[in-house]
Recover the amino acids of this structure.
């Protein structure tokens, strides 16, 4: 059950500079727990007590996981999970 | 310093004017590692707001994939402020996640003159830089 996880520049300090890492899990939450064992600190950049952080986008293949169950999103062997920091801001 | 072609500079200002009074946003892509903006990619402001912007997550994924495929990166990330100066707000600073990008701010608060300024934002530190327009 291998899932490729694509890591943005700003989080590569948690992956020894790697652009992509591999993990396992039946759900996104399980995958993040699995990654945390080898890449400490990564999980907390993606989730907080309330679930997925508001300004981080996670995608299962082409789908924003906000619309597929968040941390409960089911994963299958061969899926790719992409992490992108939101590009956001504003005058307020 | 940000070195930018006149045509790209103008394209950003035109986009900001067109979306006024909402904030406009987008990127200039360029070859990875070149620090040279070459291609304008206007983005949808998913917030459609005069005080906030956010790239639409689905559009962002598509554009970022295209950058990867072309071996490009977002050399410039821009957005407009429509009633305040062209300086990064606290929100802009706290959400800036591309330490290698030039963050361009355009203010459209004056109808006749556009303020166009560029910054580096790294670990919450803002450094303004010179903008050199190449004719």
């Amino acid at each position: 059950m291998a899932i490729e996880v694509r890591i943005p520049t700003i989080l590569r300090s948690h992956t020894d500079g790697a652009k992509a890492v591999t993990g396992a899990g039946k759900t996104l939450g399980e995958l993040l727990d699995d990654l945390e064992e080898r890449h400490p600190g990564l999980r907390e950049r993606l989730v907080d007590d309330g679930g997925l952080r508001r300004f981080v986008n996670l995608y299962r293949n082409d789908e924003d996981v906000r619309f597929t169950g968040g941390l409960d999103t089911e994963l299958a062997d061969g899926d790719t999970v992409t992490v992108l920091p939101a590009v956001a801001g504003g005058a307020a | 310093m940000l070195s930018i072609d006149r045509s790209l500079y103008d394209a950003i200002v035109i986009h900001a004017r067109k979306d006024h009074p909402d904030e406009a946003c987008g990127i200039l892509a360029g070859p990875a590692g070149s620090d040279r903006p070459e291609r304008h990619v206007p983005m949808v402001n998913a917030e459609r707001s005069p005080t906030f912007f956010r790239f639409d997550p689905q559009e962002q994924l598509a554009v970022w994939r295209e950058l990867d495929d072309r071996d490009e990166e977002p050399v410039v990330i821009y957005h407009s402020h429509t009633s305040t100066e062209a300086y990064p707000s606290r929100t802009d600073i706290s959400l800036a996640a591309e330490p290698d990008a030039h963050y361009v701010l355009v203010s459209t608060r004056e109808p006749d003159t556009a303020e166009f300024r560029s910054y580096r934002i790294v670990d919450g530190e803002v450094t303004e830089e010179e903008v050199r327009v190449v004719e």
Remarks:
- The longest helix of chain B spans residues 6-19.
- Strands of chain B lie at 2-5, 25-31, 39-43, 53-54, 72-81, 102-107, 115-122, 125-129, 131-134.
